[in-house]
Design a protein that fits this description.
The chain is mainly alpha-helical. The chain is 37% helix and 6% strand. It has a two-stranded parallel sheet. Strand 1 (45-49), helix 2 and strand 2 (73-77) form a beta-alpha-beta unit. It is an enzyme of class 5 (isomerase).
Length: 173
Amino acid sequence: MFHKSTHQDSKDRILKEFKLKESRIRCVIATVALGMGLDIRDVDLVVHIGCPKSVLSYWQEAGRCARDGRQGLSLIIYDMFTVSLKNTAKDIAKIVQNKDNTCIRTQVLSLLSDQKTVASLSESNICSGCDLQHCDCSYCRCCSVCIEKCPCQKRCFFNVQTFLNQEREDDKN
């Protein structure tokens, strides 16, 4: 556990151990106190319990994973209570609820970057079929909305355990 009330010695020990390639620590439950500037390359999964406070905080927290170039995954598990809290920005609440069923990545990036970048991202979502055991097109690597748009018979049907097992298998090869 890593939060603002965690003793500094414990924080130092957790971070030192978690950064090791053969770490005994496989998961850290943390608040935003885990901090910006943290660069642990092989984090594969970030899970947000409750709605993030803003689009920027979501992006920074999600950016903790996949820093080594492998595919990473960021999940938001939310309820309407956390979405409706006063400290939850309206823009992230709208994205999380996604009543329009539009690309989540495009919505986030449209608030954080220029529209030219967002337009080029939308144009790149094409699947021409895959020869793999599972589809790896830009639809399947984008978000939970886009994955449903992939026409491929082998498209990814999301399962966290399958994702994590796949990453470990890729490491062996």
